[in-house]
Amino acid sequence: MSKYFNKFSATILLVIFIILFSLTVYSLISSNEIVRDAELIQYLIIADFIFLLILLIYLSIFLINYIKTKKREVIGLRLFNKFFLFFGLFSIIPSGIILLASAIFFNIEMSTWLGPAFKSTVNNSYQLAQKYIDQTEKNLITDSKFIRNYVMAERLIDRDIIQRFDIISVYNFSNDQKFIEHFTEDKIELSEENINLVSK
Questions:
Q1: CB under 8 Å to 170, separation ≥6 — which residues?
Q2: Closest CA to 22 of 87, 105, 89
Q3: pLDDT tens digits for range 4-35
Q4: By CB neighbour count within 10 A (0-12 exposed, 13-18 middle, 19+ buried), where does 142 fall?
Q5: How far, in Å, CA of 83 to CA of 60, rounded?
Q6: Three-state SS annotation for 112-170
């Protein structure tokens, strides 16, 4: 019964290994977007690790039986050692292949999927920031022209305009001379130099 169980369990493990290995490779190299699903690949990798754990347990059971048999000095120990070596290699080599293949394909897919995704995100962020900067510059130019026209027309600066644009100073340039008007809460109007400037 024990030999039959060992053969049956070895056959089951071999079938599971072939299925898991085939599914893992197919899911990673397939061009089908339904198959190339990140969640599916995660589940397959988890299944591969579980299978590896089962193989380690299976190998541990063989190791325990080997130690017990060696102590009893059962006839046919060499044959048992050969079988133990065979099943041990059968457990380690496939699990190592699965682990190595999963790691390689996972790294390839990470660079294939996340690389363009990060690049696209950075490009989109840059374009959005550039549009914001351009729009802000246009708004500043528009507001500056509006304030300039308002000042030249009214010769005064309304407090509502100050509050609307959060203005601290107005700079007027003429003939390489700069006239600066600072605003206070008591009085908000142009200086004499600026009045003379806009009147020209």
A1: 147, 151, 157, 180, 181, 183, 190, 194
A2: 105
A3: 456 677 777 778 777 877 777 676 665 555 55
A4: exposed
A5: 14
A6: HHHHHHHHHHHHHHHHHHHHHHHHHHHHHHHHHHHHHHHHHHHCECCHHHHHHHCCCEE
